[in-house]
Specification:
Elements: H1 7-19, H2 22-29, H3 33-47, E1 52-55, E2 58-61, H4 63-90, E3 94-99, H5 101-108, H6 112-118, E4 123-128, E5 142-146, E6 155-168, H7 170-176, H8 181-187, E7 189-193, H9 200-207, E8 216-220, H10 223-231, E9 236-240, H11 241-249, E10 254-255, E11 261-272, H12 280-307, E12 310-313
Parallel strand pairs: 3-4, 3-5, 7-8, 7-9, 11-12
Antiparallel strand pairs: 1-2, 5-11, 6-9, 6-10, 6-11
């Protein structure tokens, strides 16, 4: 046997053994059938064994050929996997992120410049959509989702709690001030968000206040729309400090009932298949957002302290 083996011939051999004919192997390799036959003949000469027996137009592996096929096919797969892994090293780091729309606009959006400054080589793609990701069919690595935390089959990590309370503009508050809480509820326009976990009925039940038929109810499809309506002085919105902390801090929205409970519960979750946690962009983003939440919670605590609000943990199961 020749000590110098043409490694290219192994590729031709593996293709013929897998495809079953020289013609099919030639099509796969984009060469002529005669070129494949020549490589097989050369390999048999170099190894000193017969690798195939002809069966009409097809070929069948000999005992020695089958042994070589098992080894060569494993080696070629390992080389292809190594090639793919090396290719990934040179690919730009990318994070395909999906977020709940109102959270993306009001909470995450103003903070993203900081993330990009800290990770200048990372390519970030953000998709704001109301429905959860289908990770098996979509190229999404991580989803920041508003909900109860129940996503079977996925890793669900709580990242941010909601603090729900009635808020309105200072002008609207002056129109209501001086009445009892029940009278204010009766005469106010109550703005609700259709996708909210905690609605006016829940808050009133926790506050031991009935929602009167006298109340005018306004239902908005998005929290961002409901908040804007309250900023425009149209009524009282039952909303989250996660989405309104800045407006409350600068006085554009004010707590209407500081003596009644602010309902707190885990509301925003990082969702992904567990395998995605091994990806560096996912780990980088989760580490960054964890620090952002620490800063946000400090802002919320300052608002709670300044307005002397009473925070109560809200049981989603009972609510």
């Amino acid at each position: 046997m020749s000590r110098t083996v043409n490694l290219n011939a192994f590729l031709y051999f593996e293709s013929v053994a897998r495809r079953g004919t020289i013609t099919r192997a030639a099509e796969e390799l984009c060469v002529s059938p005669s070129a494949v036959s020549q490589q097989i003949k050369l390999l048999e000469q170099q190894l000193g064994v017969k690798l195939f027996r002809r069966d009409g137009r097809a070929v069948r592996l000999t005992f020695e050929g089958n042994q070589l096929f098992q080894t060569s096919s494993s080696a070629i797969r390992a080389l292809l996997e190594a090639q793919r892994d090396l290719g990934r090293v040179h690919e730009p780091l990318r994070l395909n992120l999906r977020v709940t729309p109102s959270f993306g606009v009001r909470w995450l959006g103003p903070r993203l410049a900081d993330f990009l400054d800290k990770h200048p080589t990372l390519e970030l793609h953000v998709d704001a959509a109301p429905d959860p990701s289908d990770f098996d069919r979509e190229t999404i690595e991580l989803d920041i989702r508003y909900g109860t935390g129940i996503w079977p089959g996925y890793h669900a990590q709580p990242i941010l709690s909601d603090h729900i309370l009635p808020l309105c503009s200072p002008d609207y508050f002056r129109q209501l001030k001086g009445s009892t809480a029940q009278e204010m509820i009766d005469k106010a326009r109550l703005i609700d968000s259709a996708r909210a976990i905690c609605r006016w009925d829940d808050w009133c039940n926790q506050s031991k206040l009935p929602v009167s038929p006298k109340s005018q109810s306004i239902l908005m499809d998005r929290s961002s729309m409901a908040i804007q309506l309250a900023l425009d002085g149209a009524g009282i919105v039952l909303e989250s400090l996660a989405l309104t902390a800045q407006e409350v801090a600068d006085g554009r929205l004010v707590p209407v009932f500081p003596d009644l409970p602010v309902l707190r519960f885990p509301a925003y979750w990082a969702i992904c298949p567990a395998r995605n946690l091994q990806r560096r962009p996912v780990r980088s983003f989760l580490g960054w957002i964890e620090q952002q939440v620490v800063d946000h919670n400090a802002d919320v605590e300052a608002i709670v302290s300044r307005h002397k609000l009473k925070v109560t943990d809200f049981d989603l199961a009972s609510g």
